[in-house]
Here is the input.
Amino acid sequence: MDALNQEADFKVYTPETVKDPDEIKMALTWKAPAGSYSHYPNLQVIGSMGAGVDHLFEDPSLPQHVRLTRVVDAKLSRDMQEFVLAQCLNHIKNLSSYAQSQEQSLWKPMEYGRAAEVTVGILGFGTLGQAVGKKLANVGFQVSGWAKSAKQVAGIKSYTEDQLDVFLESCHILVCLLPLTEDTNGILNNTLFQKLPKGSYLINVARGGHLNDEDLIQSLNSGQLSGAALDVFNIEPLSTDHPFWKRKEILITPHVASMSNAKSVAPQVIENYHRMERGEELLNVVSRDKKY
Ligand code: OXD
Here is the structure.
């Protein structure tokens, strides 16, 4: 909010400092309590402060006439590219296992993978998914992407809605970057894991709601999955008694893959405010039908 206040040529309030609710035309938000938006009768735009917008649709009283936007930011996209790349390399070079061996002073060489021999499947091949896919391909991984609609990205094989099974068949590493919607809720489950090659690795950097926690544990127990890197969880922070903490094959990070930065986000928020005032098309509009 401070970054916005410094740069904006309009007034910026927090819910606590608003004096006249009629004055508010645009809201910037991240996981606001349900019902927050109904206090402002002249609201025209609600902007999610992150890339994800699932938190908006969780509010049953989200005003129907209000336009919704999200953040699409080059810096956030680069952060996600680097994070996923780090997780892929960590996995194929066994770095987490060596960190665990070190705790026991254990000298235990392991076979390692090579990027050129590993296929990484990006489940959710939208703007962010494509950026991540390109980065991995540049480093030498084989990359494929799955999205509802066909995407043309040089050097990356793209699969569409009805080709999910064939897409999954070749993924040694599956990266979830899907938006969370009714269709994708719980998609990372036993049925999907069974379609991956045995011993595949899962990276979830999208939402905890995509993953069925029980099914992940079962797939690790059976060896269908060799491990997982999880940055997002059904309930955050992850409770201290959650079984994931005790699993050596799971690498847990606290939702840090790419964190919205007020300084980089402020310019596009300001731009959208002016576009709204001029009655122009907004940037990064969210479809209410698709919910992303
Ligand atoms: C986002 C996130 O959606 O941080 O931006 O998860």
